[in-house]
């Protein structure tokens, strides 16, 4: 038998190569570590998360959980994280609407609509988001008229340089009881989907299109019923009214929030428009024609033929656009919206704890990215092509 | 016998028919048209009115040099012009040598140069002569390029030498008397933006290629290291990377080694962009047919040689469009250095806004910055599309 010399054995060489790589990497890491230790010693700093329990002693412009200057740094960072999440979730929702509308407009047979959508996409995609944000904040929102001369929109909503005011529902004493009905109603959507799938599988025919109304009607009915059962309406409409020097009641979007939301939604929407357009164009015309010749209606063609194939192309890049929106919300620091990045920056300036703060920041953004991509991957697995 | 009379079609050609077909084909299209017209009017009318009456465009004229080069010493301005002449010359040379592939960029360069020359002349700024020189250089070197021996090789060498040359020119050196060193802190404006873009893109390419190869490696340790690096970098915002480069990098370097802020930002961009370049290159690697590997093996090439000689050249060619795209997106992303305190176009804009005589000119300043990026990206997109067409990327 021919025994190979061990230095010609592929398996051995592979292990050797990896060992060398690991050793070089470990040495490099050790070198960096020793530098960090030396640098910290020279600056007289220590590493540790003890400072997180110290009072933050700075105020935060807006927060969705109670916060005072005497609260801890930990709490301040949590406020930042919640602010980032709020802007991301609202932004993702709105930008999908804007992107789909612009993407469909881009395919319109109407020349003017088509060209307007193309101009929107072309201009927005080719300029930096941070300049757009600054333009919207300093150039538009802060230049709006003062509260006294507010621009009134139907609603009534008011545009002022101190924010945007709009009607809103205010929770009353029965809100907590009603919330359970809302949760059950949302859950019922999933149940309906399972039910329809089971029915479709049994009868091998697609459910009629109008059955889809159930997705809307059943939860709406439950939410309404839940409200009707309470002694007092769970939500009370409040309308912004000018009292004294300011508006009272309603929902106030701060100028920072409004500018950031507007900028992020417009910017990401332009990218989503291109994705939607490419997705719809990727379904060949023959598919539509074939569906029509089989006797499917326009709605059925769209729902059963075009959308499933288009979504397959749209979902993966759409996921990365959602992630981009969440990551880009860190540009809030340029206009003073207190998101995670901007609060982390303030905490760093006060404590000098660079390594700890950056670790917190990186981990927060990474876990946000991870959760979004897991959710979108679950959805993607349902729509993607199953090859035999 | 009855005759069926077929009426002539109402309108088939002419502007009215065009309107009918493209704007009023159905009742809802007509509605869309009117809504779009109304939206356009209600947006354009106040915008044009503002730009003609209220806007104080003087803020741009007064600070134009600041926007372009920041605090770069004014008596050393000739170096920047020299960089532009050299670029014009190189574009001209490439046009003469590579014809179609470089024609897009040459047309853009000539057009922009001529437009700037006219603009400067019109406003009475003295720099018009510089733009004229740049245009002339471009045209002369085009002629040179057409009759040059070993042209393709020489032009490639010139391009490779150009970028370090630009650095030497801009940074200067203590050893060369006529090029006194200019500290990096003084670099600013569009000059800084472009330098960061170029360094970020070309500096990250080698690292990106290595990471892409590593990600496809059969060795698990190498593979998962590369996957980890790429996914972590892609999972966090660029600002955090820049912040890290600004604050943490000095901690990781030996005591007493303090690279300049600009240099730290450049390192941040290289580390960041490498992860994205790696994904671009990976796309190219995946597009290579298995047969290519097998053919290389059959010819007796080793793994390394077949990668370097057979696979990579094809993969890189396939990802040229992606590389152009990432050039544009990095160009936009460089504006984030304003957050860590570097004086790029945007930050210069903010400092201009702090000048007492130009208070409240936010719209003018941000629109100007906006148009710089937009114009550059439009031009770059046009030029790069010509290159892609000439290379036949995506068609073979």
Structure description:
With 388 residues, chain A is an alpha+beta fold. Chain A has 3 domains: 6-42; 74-126 and 252-383, Orthogonal Bundle (MetI-like fold), CATH 1.10.3720.10; 168-238. In chain A, 65% of the residues lie in helices and 7% in strands. Chain A has helices at 10-43, 73-106, 111-125, 129-141, 175-203, 213-229, 255-281, 285-293, 298-328, 340-351, 354-383, and strands at 151-153, 157-160, 163-166, 168-171, 235-238, 241-243, 246-248, 251-253. In chain A, the strands form 3 sheets. In chain A, strands 1-2-3-8 form a 4-stranded antiparallel sheet. Chain A has a two-stranded antiparallel ribbon with strand order 4-5. In chain A, strand 1 (151-153) and strand 2 form a beta hairpin. In chain A, helix 8 packs antiparallel against helix 9. Chain A starts with 9 loop residues before the first helix and ends in a 5-residue tail after the last helix. The model of chain A has no long low-confidence stretch (mean pLDDT 85). Chain B has 396 residues and is mainly alpha-helical. Chain B is 74% helix and 0% strand. Chain B contains 18 helices and no strands. In chain B, helix 10 packs across helix 13 (261-286), helix 16 (320-333) packs antiparallel against helix 18 and helix 17 runs antiparallel to helix 18. Chains A and B meet through helix 1, helix 3, helix 4, helix 9 and helix 10 of A and helix 2, helix 10, helix 11, helix 12 and helix 16 of B.
What topology emerges from the helices and strands here?
The complex is a heterodimer of chains A (388) and B (396).
Chain A: H1 10-43, H2 73-106, H3 111-125, H4 129-141, E1 151-153, E2 157-160, E3 163-166, E4 168-171, H5 175-203, H6 213-229, E5 235-238, E6 241-243, E7 246-248, E8 251-253, H7 255-281, H8 285-293, H9 298-328, H10 340-351, H11 354-383
Antiparallel strand pairs in A: 1-2, 2-3, 3-8, 4-5, 6-7
Helix pairs in contact in A: 2-3, 2-7, 2-10, 3-7, 4-7, 5-6, 7-9, 8-9, 9-11, 10-11
Chain B: H1 15-22, H2 27-52, H3 58-62, H4 64-69, H5 77-98, H6 100-123, H7 128-146, H8 151-171, H9 189-215, H10 220-235, H11 238-247, H12 249-252, H13 261-286, H14 290-298, H15 303-318, H16 320-333, H17 345-353, H18 362-391
Helix pairs in contact in B: 5-6, 5-7, 5-8, 6-7, 6-18, 9-10, 9-13, 9-16, 9-17, 10-13, 11-13, 13-15, 13-16, 14-15, 16-18, 17-18
């Amino acid at each position: 038998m021919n025994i190979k010399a061990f230095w010609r054995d592929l398996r051995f060489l592979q292990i050797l190569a990896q060992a060398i790589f690991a050793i070089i990497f470990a040495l490099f890491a050790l070198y960096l570590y020793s530098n960090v230790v030396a640098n910290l010693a020279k600056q007289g700093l220590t590493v540790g998360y003890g400072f997180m329990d110290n009072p933050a002693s700075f105020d935060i412009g807006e927060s969705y959980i109670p916060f005072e200057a005497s609260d801890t740094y930990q709490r301040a960072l949590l406020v930042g994280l919640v602010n980032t999440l709020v802007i991301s979730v609202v932004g993702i929702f709105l930008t999908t609407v804007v992107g789909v509308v612009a993407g469909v407009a881009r395919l319109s047979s109407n020349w003017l609509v088509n060209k307007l959508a193309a101009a929107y996409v072309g201009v927005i995609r080719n300029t930096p988001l941070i300049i757009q944000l600054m333009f919207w904040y300093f150039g538009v929102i802060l230049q709006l008229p003062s509260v006294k001369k507010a621009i009134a929109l139907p609603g009534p909503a008011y545009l002022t340089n101190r924010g945007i005011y709009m009607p809103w529902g205010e929770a009353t004493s029965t809100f907590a009881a009603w919330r359970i009905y809302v949760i059950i109603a949302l859950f019922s959507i999933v149940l309906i989907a399972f039910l329809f799938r089971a029915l479709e599988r049994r009868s091998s025919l697609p459910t009629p299109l109008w059955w889809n109304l159930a997705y809307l009607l059943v939860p709406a009915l439950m939410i309404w019923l839940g409200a009707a059962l309470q002694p007092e309406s769970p939500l009370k409409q409040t309308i912004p009214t000018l009292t004294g020097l300011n508006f009272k009641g309603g929902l106030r979007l701060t100028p920072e929030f409004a500018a950031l939301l507007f900028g992020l939604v417009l910017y990401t929407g332009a990218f989503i428009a291109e994705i939607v357009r490419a997705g719809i164009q990727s379904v060949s015309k023959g598919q539509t024609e074939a569906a029509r010749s089989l006797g499917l209606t326009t709605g059925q063609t769209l729902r059963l033929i075009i959308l499933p194939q288009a979504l397959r192309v749209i979902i993966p890049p759409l996921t990365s656009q959602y992630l981009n929106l969440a990551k880009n919300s860190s540009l809030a620091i340029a206009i003073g919206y207190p998101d995670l990045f901007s609060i982390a920056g303030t905490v760093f300036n006060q404590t000098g704890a660079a390594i700890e703060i950056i670790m917190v920041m990186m981990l927060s953004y990474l876990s946000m990215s991870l959760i979004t991509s897991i959710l979108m991957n679950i959805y993607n697995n349902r729509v993607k092509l199953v090859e035999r | 016998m009855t005759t069926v009379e077929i009426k002539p079609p109402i309108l088939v050609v002419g502007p009215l028919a065009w309107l009918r077909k493209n704007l009023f084909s159905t009742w809802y299209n007509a509605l869309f048209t009117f809504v779009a017209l109304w939206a356009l009017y209600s947006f354009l009318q106040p915008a044009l009115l503002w730009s003609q009456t209220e806007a104080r465009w003087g803020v741009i004229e007064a600070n134009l040099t600041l926007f372009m080069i920041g605090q770069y010493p004014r008596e050393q301005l000739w170096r920047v012009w020299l960089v532009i002449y050299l670029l014009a010359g190189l574009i001209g040379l490439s046009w003469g040598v590579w014809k179609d592939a470089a024609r897009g960029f040459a047309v853009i360069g000539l057009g922009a140069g001529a437009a700037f020359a006219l603009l400067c002349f019109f406003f009475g700024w003295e720099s018009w002569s510089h733009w004229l020189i740049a245009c002339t250089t471009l045209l002369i070197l085009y002629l040179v390029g057409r009759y040059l021996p070993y042209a393709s090789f020489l032009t490639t060498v010139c391009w490779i030498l150009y970028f370090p040359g630009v650095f030497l020119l801009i940074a200067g050196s203590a050893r060369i008397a006529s090029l006194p060193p200019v500290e990096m802190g003084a670099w600013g404006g569009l000059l800084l933006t472009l330098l960061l873009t170029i360094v970020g893109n070309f500096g990250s390419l080698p690292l990106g290629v290595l990471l892409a190869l590593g990600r496809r490696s059969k060795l698990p340790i190498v593979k998962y290291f590369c996957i980890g690096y790429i996914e972590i970098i892609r999972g966090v915002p660029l600002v955090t990377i820049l912040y890290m480069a600004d604050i943490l990098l000095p901690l990781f370097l030996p005591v007493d080694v303090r690279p300049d802020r600009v240099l730290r930002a450049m390192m941040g961009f290289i580390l960041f962009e490498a992860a994205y370049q790696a994904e671009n290159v990976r796309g190219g690697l995946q597009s290579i047919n298995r047969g290519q590997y097998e053919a290389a093996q059959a010819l007796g090439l080793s793994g390394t040689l077949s990668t370097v000689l057979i696979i990579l050249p094809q993969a890189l060619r396939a990802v040229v469009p992606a590389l152009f795209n990432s050039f544009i997106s990095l160009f936009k992303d460089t504006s984030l250095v304003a957050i860590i305190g570097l004086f790029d176009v945007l930050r210069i804009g903010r400092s201009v806004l702090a000048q007492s005589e130009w208070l409240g000119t936010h719209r003018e300043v941000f629109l100007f910055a906006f148009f710089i990026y937009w114009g550059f990206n439009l031009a770059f997109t046009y030029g790069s599309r010509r290159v892609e067409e000439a290379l036949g990327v995506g068609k073979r």
